[in-house]
């Protein structure tokens, strides 16, 4: 009897294997992220004095848009050939599938961040005045915040017309507190003006609340026809 | 019921006219803002009405989701009571950010189980969902009024159209965004379970709003921002007019909701009747039993 | 006579203004092979999906072996016209993954079902490159992986070459003979002549007739 954890790991392993084999989505996403950073650097002058104050916002907005493109293809493979039906008729718990997809997206978006962040640092000559290590919890918690809700709303969008626009439409309003947290926290650390503790706690609270909500309601979304 | 509606409509019209008179003529002129402030008698009651409608939508959505299985139905009832009791006590025990009164929180939290049981009793089954879509639509209208009157008020008085750090206005904006996305989801969803998906979104929205509030509140403590609408106490005469205005708005909201509710019930009945007819014209072999809209069947 | 394996009670399935199933009442015994026929839009696919637990009835109930369809999922095998397989993986890789979902450890069962449907377990070609006949067979393998008592097959022979179709029918007959209950929706009714125990004809969301033999107007008609 497979435990939910082993099903989740098997699903995650399968997704990573398939992504690695084709590398199509990964390569085009990486290039897209690079383009976003370049466009931003042309639009918002990196040499200006205030760049340190706006860089936090720029990075996270760029990541948000790149993440949406990545999130939109979360269920693409399951929709081809209606594989999702095969999952639905199996005894496998829906949350195992959800967590596998969310963690997969987390890894995917983290890879994009790993590419985009050094580019931003280079283009904007960024240097953290505050404690730089605090950027790590902000990045981890913030990414999970986007990805957990993104995976959930991507599943909801499956049942709608204009699928690609429905995902950001549903995701952005609900993500606003997380975006405030990510941006304000990053800016606080880059400028060194304020402590980032509250933002980290806010992101942690957000993650706990919405991960719980997603796990509680995912089965309803999966079983929607 | 058919006679009550026109009578109510007349009463509402009278109340709205009376409220207008009170707001423009009777209410005293503000010492600092002059007569411009009078927009408050439309701005604030719209906000309170919108919040009440969205609150009802949230309770209806949760109950709609919980009622689909007997186990969750029972559990949800107990949770509603627990939330009400614990929250009311906590409001007085836990230190709250400045500007929020414990009694306000306690009243809101106690309203949760009260509304939960009232809605469950008077809007069984599918009617909960009809109520949800009604309150969402009318709520968005009132919320739009708040967001339009807010900047109109702010510009002449405080010199700016918008302050991103203004807690109330920004939280209202997020609430508006969430419910507009809710209405778009309802319209664009092809699913047979659209109602459950929308209810799930409403739950997400409700969880989001307190987080928005606190995130902006903390942002303000780090970066002081102008407060649109001002804080502080109000002249009792002004408060009276505000309450009169709110009463008129509530009557109006009720009237519009009632209309929309009836419309939606009828629309669903028509849809069901259409569905039961034969695909190729009327078929006498089929026993057309138009199922009661409020029955749910096995989900 | 034992109680029926599947009971459908007054099932109505509504999609907005359209009712795909308009009051279906039926009982089905275990160990029988049921062929479901009817025009497009008659509700055949919807009925099958309702039995599989993929479509939730707007009204009415379905009882499978005494349980609701979702609870009976271990005893149900479902196959549809889309393959329900990942195009980018080989047949065995697909089956290994789905075996995990059912709690089946090891490769033996996967190899067994692949051989049973007449395919080669050593095949490393991705499923996306299979012919339609091979894809349908692999899809059937996936459906029987967990050895369910009840098989729900939606148009398994569509676009399949005659040879493969014949072999599939032979396979399905064997499954019925070993005690499984089969529901096959098809437009190619002639293929099941002499194999199916009962032919069920649906029209406008209802079952209008059930006969042990193929209705006369079907013999020779079939493939569209």
SSE layout:
The complex is a heterotrimer of chains A (225), B (299) and C (224).
Chain A: H1 4-22, H2 24-43, H3 51-71, H4 76-79, H5 83-89, H6 94-124, H7 135-157, H8 163-191, H9 197-222
Helix pairs in contact in A: 1-6, 2-3, 2-6, 3-6, 3-7, 3-8, 6-7, 6-9, 7-8, 7-9, 8-9
Chain B: H1 4-26, H2 40-66, H3 70-93, H4 102-122, H5 126-158, H6 167-188, H7 194-222, H8 236-276
Chain C: E1 6-15, E2 18-28, E3 33-38, H1 44-52, E4 59-64, E5 76-79, H2 91-101, H3 108-116, H4 132-144, E6 150-154, H5 162-177, E7 181-185, E8 198-203, E9 206-211
Parallel strand pairs in C: 3-7, 3-8, 5-6, 6-7
Antiparallel strand pairs in C: 1-2, 1-4, 8-9
Helix pairs in contact in C: 2-3, 3-4
Notes on the structure:
The complex is a heterotrimer of chains A (225), B (299) and C (224). Chain A has 225 residues and is mainly alpha-helical. Chain A has one domain. Chain A has helices at residues 4-22, 24-43, 51-71, 76-79, 83-89, 94-124, 135-157, 163-191, 197-222. The longest helix of chain A has 31 residues, at 94-124. Chain A is globular, with a radius of gyration of 18 Å. The model of chain A has no long low-confidence stretch (mean pLDDT 91). Chain B is mostly helical. Chain B has one domain. Chain B is 74% helix and 0% strand. Chain B has helices at 4-26, 40-66, 70-93, 102-122, 126-158, 167-188, 194-222, 236-276. In chain B, α6 packs antiparallel against α7. Chain B is globular and about 65 Å long. With 224 residues, chain C is of the alpha/beta class. Chain C has a single domain (6-215), classed as Rossmann fold (3-Layer(aba) Sandwich). Chain C has helices at 44-52, 91-101, 108-116, 132-144, 162-177, and strands at 6-15, 18-28, 33-38, 59-64, 76-79, 150-154, 181-185, 198-203, 206-211. Chain C has a six-stranded mixed sheet with strand order 5-6-7-3-8-9, sandwiched between helices. Chain C has a three-stranded antiparallel sheet with strand order 2-1-4, with helices on one face. In chain C, α3 (108-116) crosses α4. The radius of gyration of chain C is 17 Å and the shape is globular. The model of chain C is unreliable at 220-224 (pLDDT under 50). Chains in contact: A-B, A-C, B-C. The interface between A and B is medium-sized, with 34 and 31 residues.
């Amino acid at each position: 009897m497979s435990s939910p954890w082993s099903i989740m790991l098997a699903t995650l392993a399968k997704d990573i294997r398939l992504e690695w084999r084709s590398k199509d989505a990964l390569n085009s996403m990486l290039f897209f992220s690079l383009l976003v950073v370049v466009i931003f650097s042309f639009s918002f002058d990196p040499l200006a004095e205030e760049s340190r104050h706006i860089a936090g916002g720029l990075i996270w907005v760029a990541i948000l848009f790149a993440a949406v493109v990545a999130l939109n293809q979360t269920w693409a493979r399951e929709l081809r050939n209606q594989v999702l039906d095969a999952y639905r008729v199996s005894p496998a718990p829906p949350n195992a599938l959800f967590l596998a997809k969310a963690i997969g997206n987390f890894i995917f978006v983290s890879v994009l961040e790993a590419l985009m962040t050094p580019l931003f640092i280079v283009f904007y000559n960024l240097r953290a005045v505050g404690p730089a290590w605090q950027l790590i919890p902000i990045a981890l918690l913030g990414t999970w915040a986007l990805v957990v809700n993104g995976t959930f709303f991507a599943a909801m969008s499956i049942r709608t017309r204009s699928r690609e626009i429905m995902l950001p439409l549903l995701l952005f309003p609900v993500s606003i507190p997380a975006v405030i947290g990510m941006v304000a926290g990053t800016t606080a650390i880059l400028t060194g003006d304020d402590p980032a503790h509250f933002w980290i706690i806010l992101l942690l609270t957000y993650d706990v609340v919405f991960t719980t909500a997603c796990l509680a309601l995912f089965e309803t979304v999966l079983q929607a026809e | 019921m058919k006679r009550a509606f026109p009578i109510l409509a007349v009463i509402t019209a009278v109340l709205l006219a009376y409220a207008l008179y009170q707001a423009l003529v009777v209410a005293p002129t503000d010492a600092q803002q002059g007569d411009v402030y009078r927009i408050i008698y439309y701005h604030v009651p719209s906000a309170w009405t919108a919040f009440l409608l969205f609150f009802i939508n949230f309770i209806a959505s949760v109950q709609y989701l919980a009622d689909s299985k007997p186990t969750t139905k029972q559990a949800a009832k107990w949770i509603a009571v627990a939330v009400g009791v614990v929250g009311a006590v906590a409001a007085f025990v836990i230190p709250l950010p400045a500007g929020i009164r414990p009694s306000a929180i306690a009243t809101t939290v106690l309203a949760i189980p009260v509304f939960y049981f009232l809605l469950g009793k008077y809007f069984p089954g599918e009617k909960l969902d009809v109520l949800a879509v009604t309150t969402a639509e009318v709520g968005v209208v009132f919320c739009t009024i708040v967001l339009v009157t807010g900047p109109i008020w702010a510009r002449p008085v405080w010199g700016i159209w918008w302050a991103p750090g203004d807690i109330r206005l920004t939280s209202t904006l997020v609430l508006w965004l969430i419910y507009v996305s809710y209405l778009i989801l309802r319209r664009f969803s092809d699913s047979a379970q659209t109602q459950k998906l929308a209810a799930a979104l409403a739950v997400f929205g409700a969880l989001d709003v307190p987080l928005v509030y606190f995130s902006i509140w903390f942002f303000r403590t780090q970066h002081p921002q102008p407060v649109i609408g001002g804080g502080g106490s109000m002249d009792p005469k002004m408060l009276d007019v505000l309450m009169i205005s709110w009463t008129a708005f509530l009557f109006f909201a009720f009237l519009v909701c009632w209309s929309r509710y009836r419309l939606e019930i009828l629309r669903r009945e028509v849809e069901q009747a259409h569905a039961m007819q034969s695909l190729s014209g009327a078929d006498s072999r089929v026993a057309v039993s138009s199922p009661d809209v409020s029955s749910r069947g096995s989900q | 006579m034992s109680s029926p394996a599947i009971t459908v009670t007054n099932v109505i399935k509504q999609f907005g203004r359209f009712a795909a199933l308009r009051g279906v009442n039926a009982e089905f015994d275990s160990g029988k092979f049921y062929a479901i026929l009817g025009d497009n839009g008659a509700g055949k696919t919807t009925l099958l999906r309702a039995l599989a637990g993929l479509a939730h009835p707007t009204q009415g109930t379905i009882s499978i072996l005494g349980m609701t369809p979702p609870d009976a999922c271990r005893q149900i095998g479902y196959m549809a016209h889309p393959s329900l397989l990942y195009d980018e993986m080989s047949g065995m890789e697909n089956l290994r993954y789905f075996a995990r979902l059912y709690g089946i450890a090891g490769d033996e069962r996967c190899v067994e079902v692949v051989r049973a449907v007449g395919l080669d377990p050593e095949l490393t070609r991705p499923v996306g490159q299979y012919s339609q006949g091979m894809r349908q067979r692999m899809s059937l393998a996936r459906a029987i992986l967990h050895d369910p008592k009840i098989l729900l097959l939606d148009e398994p022979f569509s676009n399949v070459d005659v040879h493969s179709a014949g072999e599939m029918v032979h396979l399905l007959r064997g499954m019925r003979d070993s005690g499984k209950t089969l529901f096959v929706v098809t437009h190619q009714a002639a293929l099941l002549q002499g194999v199916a125990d009962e032919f069920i004809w649906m029209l406008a969301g209802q079952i209008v007739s059930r006969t042990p033999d193929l209705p006369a107007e079907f013999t020779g008609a079939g493939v569209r």
